[in-house]
User: Fold Cystatin domain-containing protein from Asparagus officinalis.
Amino acid sequence: MSTAATYELPESPAKKAKMTTMTVTPQEEGRVYGVDDDEDEIYNDGLHMMTDEEMKRYGEAVMRSDGFEVPEFPNVIALGLIIPIMNNISAKFRGKILKYARFAVDRHNEERVKEGAMELHLDITRIVNCNAEVSCPVNYYITFEAKDLDTNELDQYEAMVVTRVRHDDDNVPIFRKKTKPTNPPVPTEHVLPSHGLVALRDCSYH
Assistant:
């Protein structure tokens, strides 16, 4: 009676090396999103993970403004980061942001009517700022200027618009008049030229 021999193939050295390279120690896990610190040097693409100081600045800005005012972090790569996009979108996409701002006003009015309040009659005059967060697919943090047609007052408003792939479930969890600072800082708003902005990638998430 013959006995079949059982052979165990050795693990591929290339595969083993790759797995070893990506191993994360408990001390590193979380802070660098599960990849090694030296990956920046390996890829040499000019991008880097957020430093502790950058993460602190970002977190404080999000807590302070709910995501409507965050600093730019050039050459930073991070998942789910809220980033300013006003300087990197085309005139066509600027129109899309305006459409989302109007959607926010309409949705807010629907909620006001349900609660027995009067609608806000706002004429949006310009988009002051917009930040974006890649989610499902994108959350927009829009700051816009609008004129109240009932009182003739011009104010800035903030609206967070959560979009969905089919847009059926788009919603507006935040809509509010922007609080005016007691000591206004030097204006840092993005003034949009009449010919539009240079398109980086047109934010084509949909």
Summary: Residues 6-43, 185-206 have pLDDT under 50 and may be disordered.
